[in-house]
Queue: 4 jobs
Job 1
Amino acid sequence: MDETTYDRLRLEQWRDGRASGRGFTRRDLMRLAAAVGVGGAIGAGSAGGAARAADGPIVKPLPPELFTVFGTNAETRWESLKDTGYLVPVDRFFVRNHTSTPIIDPVTYRLKLFGSGLRAPVEFSLDQLKRLPRETITAAVECAGNGRSLFTTQQGQTVSGTAWKLGAIGVGRWHGVRLGTVLRAAGLRRDAVDVQPQGLDANFVSGGVDLGPVRRPLPIGKALDDVLLAWELNDAPLPPDHGAPLRVVVPSWIGISSIKWAGAIEVAAEPLFSPWNTQFYRLFGADHPAEGTLIDEQVVKSAFELAWGATLPLSRTTLTGRSWSANGPIRHVDVSTDGGTTWRRAHTTGPNLANAWQRWRIDWSPATAGQHTLIARATDVTGATQPVTVPHNTLGYLFGAQVRHPVTVA
Ligand SMILES: Nc1nc2c(c(=O)[nH]1)N[C@H]1C(S)=C(S)[C@@H](COP(=O)(O)O)O[C@H]1N2
Ligand SMILES: [Mo]
């Protein structure tokens, strides 16, 4: 069997396992969590490079016209993307930090790989990584909780977590080396099943418990498919807030998979667990089993490049926006300017890349002044679209319903 076939089979195997409900029970998860120990960043040794704390949780400026700040996180204002290009400029790219942006010395930095899925532990300097075959991809990083506040404002439901609107997404051009290239260079064993990158940021403490470094496993099939280890964003060195000197970029998967400040990668011949795949980033609630439902891929979403509650003139205006889906490119986008009663097809503009987004525009001549509700509804290449409502989950992930965007015409 050649390597590609092996990789494909592993991914299929992993997906089949999930589809047939061969999940782990909550007790299994707790037992495993106990086995690896609290803060179970096992085997990494000392951190790969000196990290020091920056002055605040986020280093770059966060002007209020570009961002809404929530503690250690900053959401992009959609109106600030109007008239920008296909990529989100770094000065307005959202930031999601569990703790704080660390400042890491790129010279002493090392990426450490270890675990039962490798022939031996090995480490790479940044220069060594840069001598491997390089690659550039355009891909979105989007938080699983993007749109979370809409569970409450549209569906009247209680959810916990950062109350994002739709600005916890950014599309960037990422340059680096494929994770698969690094894994093979590191001496990947054929029985490896999971790959878990971990960050060099401070350990995440929740409810007084030290959960260790931010980390979440990827199945080997995904790790060998299209995952990148990036040191550049939009043709410039990766900025501190987005993971310098090296971050993981996992196309089409929830943002937590894309570990920033990656200092170590565990490669294992057995399934790996961390709080980020047992406690967080699972769907909990009435529609789900007690141990929750693991999530990985994103859903279909759309946003207008307009302020929330924007004021528009009582004359012809051009509405612009973007739509995206983890399943592939967008087939079409329909817009309603009357709260969902009638729909018109938007004109799509520019590239329509898988793993990124499709920009669109449509003219609107409001007939009356006052409050109006705009809705954009995308359909992707697989026919997947945006429903009127989505099932509740307590942590507020994957809000893929049609968003009712309020505007005032005056
Ligand atoms: N080490 C580390 N990696 C991390 C995080 C973090 O807090 N620490 N946050 C994750 C989450 S939840 C998201 S949504 C993305 C956000 O990437 P960005 O801040 O570059 O937009 O990074 C992910 N990688
Ligand atoms: Mo996230």
Note: Residues 1-11, 16-47 have pLDDT under 50 and may be disordered.
Job 2
Amino acid sequence: MLSQPVLMNDFVRQWHETGEAASQAMIRVGASGWYVLGKEVRGFEAALAAYQGRRHAIGCANGLDAIEIGLRALGLEPGERVLTTPMSAFATTLAIVRAGGVPVFIDVDPSGLVDLDLAARYLAEDPRTRFFVPVHLYGHALDLDALGALTRRFELKVVEDCAQAIGARSRGRPVGSVGRLSGLSFYPTKNLGALGDAGAVLTDDDALAQACHALRDYGQGRKYEHERIGLNSRLDELHAAILASAQLPRLAAWTARRREIAQQYHARITSERVRPLPAPEGSESVWHLFPVRVAPEQRDAFVDHMKARGIQTAVHYPKLIPDQRALSGTPFVSVGTLREAHALARSELSLPIHPYLQDDEITRVVEAANEFAP
Ligand SMILES: *Cc1c(COP(=O)(O)O)cnc(C)c1O
């Protein structure tokens, strides 16, 4: 019997549900005669700010720009050190480098997220470092009590990378509530995905919000008054309209389904060879990914085993950021050997967890994982 493949993301099923609302949004924008930074963008920004519990959301072109804009709004000076994690999408570091910062890579803990104790130890020895871009990886929330304490103790300027963690909380507290700013991505695979690229910066600070508004639009404060070296990172009306009327209203239900699937995997995957990564203490995760650890020498065999059963998997991420060739001519600091991050890069694998996964597909994933016997 031929069964459909189990995909990491199923945009066709998503369109089946969202297509009508998205098409109406397109007609509305087309007929309005206004296509960039207008009332659709303002409406989406207001809804998004409310969803994340922040005063301001500033729509922009993508998640990479959101982090860069955040760092520039905070006044990052060229050559200043910025703590971050070696285990993330490359975009996190790219934003730091493009903003003129020097990334300082701190190892991760067993959850795969940046180790806040190691960050504290580093900061105690290098008090010059004032910036931090922590990443709420995999949809898990970093321990925000610990992040808040670190921020206060070392007077850090923090831009939280929430690209994978919209809606995640740490002991009831939303991600993005510790940093002066946070960045979101609406790349299609993210928990809130556009039909293309989009992103947003969020903040509670009126002055920072104003700076972000200028930075996304050539650095203009008022029209033709350029106060800063800005970007063109404007958000289209079309993407904002689709996000606001077809996607955001479904995010809570999508997140609930992701949580249900994660719960099923935790309860039913019993193989000793396939171990879910632990979430950080206190994390109310939104399960952007479902990362597991397998023995490094068995990972390729596990990928093939799943593939033979029609199940896609992916590795997040196989190569650490400081090991990427793009950084070879760029100043950066690796703190210690990044042992845990290297070990994870060799052993991590993500199972499908998108909200359109059906019950029989969850069972297929569980059974395939449990049957793995290399
Ligand atoms: C996707 C992602 C980004 C970048 O977002 P884009 O919209 O692709 O630019 C940044 N950080 C993390 C952790 C991401 O997953």
Note: The mean pLDDT is 97.
Job 3
Amino acid sequence: MSRFFSPRLSGLAPYTPGEQPRRQNVIKLNTNENPYPPSPAVLDAVNRGEVEKLRLYPDPTAATLCDALAARFNLSPAQVMVTNGSDDALAFAFAAFYTDGAPVRFPDITYGFYPVFARLFGCTYEEIPLREDFSVDIESFMQNTGVVLANPNAPSGLALPAREIEKIARANPDRVVLVDEAYADFAEEGCSALPLLDRFENLLIVGTFSKSYSLAGARLGFALGSKELIADLQTVRNSFNPYSINRLTLLAGVAALGDRAYHASCVERIKATRARLTSALRGMGFFVIESSANFVFARHGQFSGASLYALLREKNILVRHFDRPRTGDFIRITVGTDEETDALTGALKSIIGGNTNAQG
Ligand SMILES: *Cc1c(COP(=O)(O)O)cnc(C)c1O
């Protein structure tokens, strides 16, 4: 740390992203990326002519993409904002809605960025313990505080039905209830809070192109809410970096959103592989939480999460391990292709089988 660093920020512990290895021969199941490439329409949209146009600034209003998202979700364009990854949307929301000294609540086990944003922007926050089975006790989010919930949650993969989100939105009428739907496309019907938007002016939904649209590298997210909430977020965004989404990413987003059949088929394949992976792991003695996302959270009685992570890493398979009291026994495994899943389950079989023999 330099002697110039702000004392207010000197204690900040930043978010730790999953590893992005440089080696090519790694099976990468650690950051919930989509194993399939983006829609072929994306490649057509991001063409040579468009690369030449990179000399021009992008449209700061991102009008074409906002219009396309509005049409998709049956909202007006003023209810939509697009951002550089949904992490930006989350950051703007913390800055816009939770810096007034009143508390914002989120679960103790959830996306690791929420407490980081809260500390960066000086928000008062409360981490509410999940139940023993990692489910959300919705009663503890009904005290008219700010609320941030990932739904489905990470790393558990558990989803709340929209009717529970509705109770939470109704119980916190004077504060913004933010639902992070990064994984909602992998969940069952009736999970997304989208149908509640016209009834709750305090409800804000954040989504991303990183997971179900295979565009993690393009950095594209969005926020949906009342036009007043969106105007507030725009004020924050335009006070920071109005050109935050580059031209190629805007084109990629419109193209990916337009190819509904491709998106649906990727999501279906991932859900089918998720079911195979879940039952294969259970067959090996893992406890696996029923996932509504593109990852599973699993624990094995004889191995710590840290040792499974390390043993898989030796076999060039990356998964994610969170070294905290209630999650330390688990590994989080992204749902890859069927081939990657077979390689993972094969590796786990040899690890676990090896241990059984050693113990006689
Ligand atoms: C992956 C993820 C995001 C978003 O990421 P971006 O790539 O910034 O859009 C947001 N929330 C959760 C819970 C996630 O897991």
Note: The pocket of pyridoxal-5'-phosphate is lined by residues 32, 85-87, 111, 150, 154, 180, 182, 208, 210, 216, 221 (CB under 6 Å).
Job 4
Amino acid sequence: MQTAGTLSMGDKMEKATDARVLAQRTAEIRARMSKAAITAGRQPQEIFLCAVCKGQQSDVIRQSTELPLDFFGENRVQEFLTHKEANAYGGKSCHFIGHLQTNKVKKVVGQVSLIQSVSSLRLLHAIAKEAAGQKLVQDILLELNIADEPDKTGASKGDLPMLLEAAAGLKAVRVRGLMTIPPATTSSRENRRSFSMLRALLESAKKQVGKDMPLDVLSMGMTDSFEEAILEGATIVRIGRGIYGDRK
Ligand SMILES: *Cc1c(COP(=O)(O)O)cnc(C)c1O
């Protein structure tokens, strides 16, 4: 018969291994990020690591607050609320990176430092209204579906000027830049083409809005593509599997 004592010792050993594995993976990601930055002639410090903790338990997230990551990224409102309730993020901030329904906006506005996934006029207005009600300014990114993939979230490129114009008139939101999830591919060349497209869109957005809106964030690149993204100008890479391992 197993006693409670041996069970908890087993638990502890497993946690210690987990922590070591998380630390090793994160160190490796950081090293590769730095290398890509240097290759691109950029400063490693100007690129932020967003740890995508979807599907993870609160205690795994709490463990990872010790790691050299800059903030967490959540793509489900309910998971975000659960982890926040459990104080899983420690002193680190969290970004919302998933599809956000307008009826859940109030659970996220003012609670995350950046909403990366604003993809429609309707959502933009809903966020602005909620932020105004809370008397704060919510930082956001506009998410673009750069290859116009039918089943994907993100606004179409053609809507970008309209979204920027709308945002310019909303005092309670501040657009900081752009985000994309590129088409799934293993081709590093195709990834680079996608990322350079997002970067070009950011440049044209800057021209449109002038100095009033500081557009300096490009969130692009995931576990299998972050080096290409850094070479093309990413300022945030969003890494899930590379830190936490494959999702079940
Ligand atoms: C899951 C997810 C990621 C991370 O993907 P990995 O391949 O696990 O690194 C990044 N961005 C968004 C929006 C995601 O949903």
Note: Residues 1-5 have pLDDT under 50 and may be disordered.
